[in-house]
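Reopening this one. Same input as before:
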Amino acid sequence: MATEIKEAPVAERKVSETKMNQGTWTRIRPLQRDELDPYTQAGMVAGELTWGGFRNNLCKVMAYTPRLLQTEVEYCNTFIFDPITFRGDIQEAGFNDRFIKELVITLTSLINRSRYSVTHHSAIGMTLYRNAGRADEAHQKYLYLHEYFNHPDVYTERESIVLGYADKITRDAHLVTDAEFTTLKRVLREYNLKETRFKNFSEKQMDRYVDSQIVELTWLIGHFCLLNRWFTVLQVPDEGPKDEDNFLAFYEQTVPEDIRRRNEKILKGDF
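Same output, byte for byte:
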């Protein structure tokens, strides 16, 4: 006798209309905090505080799946924003510096032509460099990022090798050769050895640290390939003057005009 399979009940939930400022959208309307339960709101606030203090459409669209919103922030922090972090004497995060990570994120997003990632991380990256007193350096690095391979005078050997690795993974991970992987390890090792904190590392310890850096970088690249596609297919919009916070105004103030023009040339008006 066949066993009857019953569908799981669908929980009822109240759906309310937002009374908050709402910018334009196309495929998925970003949810507002007055439409969310307190627990999901808390996840949204955590994302806002982590990602520049802006009330952003990333969190507002992700709020359709509350558990994803609640877990995404801490998950992403581990390989994007967390500084060098220890649990006792075990390093848990921050194996690569934020500067190289932001270059990798923006290059990946330019290749994937993902508007939300390109605009937001151009602004995040420029702000990061500017706060470190490296604004002129950032201008050159971000302006030529889409053709980094033509500007060896702008990028260090480590930056060029890491960007080349990100470039190939984004286009087709099968393209990365054993020789390129060996070169990546060598360049990261040589860069690390210039830092005093590694002076007492044994060969085995340094091998493991370099592997940690590559694992973190590769996860970062893969995650942004996922996120780029998510932003693009859902057509998540940049926050404008009709939203709670006007990101586009910040973008124009923060990112030089020639970089913004280059971004638009690559994005071609798409999401």
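So the earlier flakiness isn't reproducible anymore. For the record, Strands lie at 85-87, 90-93.
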